Amino acid sequence: MRPKSMGRLVALASTALLLVGAVSAGSANASAERGRAAQTLNWVALGDSYSADVMVPPWDAPADSDGCGRSGYSWEAMLKRDLNAAHPGWVNMTDVTCGGATVAQGVLGPQPDGVLFGPPADGKDHGGWVTKTPQIDAVNADTDIVTVGIGGNDLGFGDIMNNCLAIGAEQTLPVKYCKAYYESEQGQHWLNERWQIVEDGLQATLADIHSRAPEAKVFLLGYPAIVPSAFGCAYGNFHQLGTVRLTSDAPYLDSLQQRLNQKIADAADENQATYVDTYTSSEQHGVCASGSDRWMYGVFSNLVMPPGVDKPADPAQYQCPAREQVPALLPKGEACTFVHPNYYGALNQRNEAEAAFQAAGLTP
After folding, report:
1. Residue 101 falls within a domain, yes or no?
2. Does 207 reside within a domain?
3. Cα distances (Å, whole numbers) of residue 289 to 240, 252, 269, 297
4. What is the pLDDT of residue 62?
5. What residues make up the domain containing 111?
6. What's the distance, Cα to Cα, between the start and end of the chain in Å?
7. How many domains does the chain have?
8. pTM of the entire structure?
9. 220 — phi, psi (to 5°)?
10. For residue 237, what is the domain's CATH number?
């Protein structure tokens, strides 16, 4: 009997030890899961007006003294809110995006008064904007996620657009096209220099990010479609492309935009970053679409408001250089939206970025 009793005791003791071990392992796993759940991902958002979504009211304070025009409904702001609603404290975002930013003046270097174009008004009305420190300074070794939307101002897309408006407004014969100018020796030389600036800027930005935050996951956003097709557009309609010639110059602008996106995608591929394509999903939603299918503003437009947000008292105060290019032709009392995403466009950017985050394992 004694040996059997001893055997039962040994067996019971072994079982108890196994149970304790299982409970301890389970507790350790649960603790680890709680630790991961409690960890906040530090996200830094860099970029220009398409990342700040400067034409989507309401703007972050101090909108009238900052000059950057960051929207409270930018794609980053919406995605941050939604991620944290699904899992409180999931991300902590530092948003330093700024309207008018280039790589040299904005991302890697200071952004002075003359390169700040955020709404709601011209900085001259406020005695000038205060120079912004380089956006890259927000990135450090504790950064987990970096999103970047840059390149359009380095290319000078706004200058090209303004030139197309001015050339298209000329009523002399033969009809002039800005496409012909940029394919001339002078225009082509200028463009080649700008393309080199874009390529060098993207490489320098990614190198700096990786040196500051070697463990961070980096996402480069492409630009959404402005005018993939001129179908439905009308010459002289500033809710669309204004005086841009539709048969030649609109497709040319689209080709420049697609080439810019390709350079951004190539830079991402070469630098262990993820390219976020916002163009393909927005191809049917450019400036010539209508209603809620239109995700891109034209040169001037009535502001499209997010749900539950009231319109600003005086949209006409929102300025841009186009107002000086062809002043006699411009509509009165409307915002200078100058081909930027509206609320629906920002929502699409948010959706594409969330899909990229999810593929990288960064969503709750």
Report:
1. yes
2. yes
3. 9, 19, 32, 10
4. 61
5. 40-359
6. 58
7. 1
8. 0.87
9. -105, 120
10. 3.40.50.1110
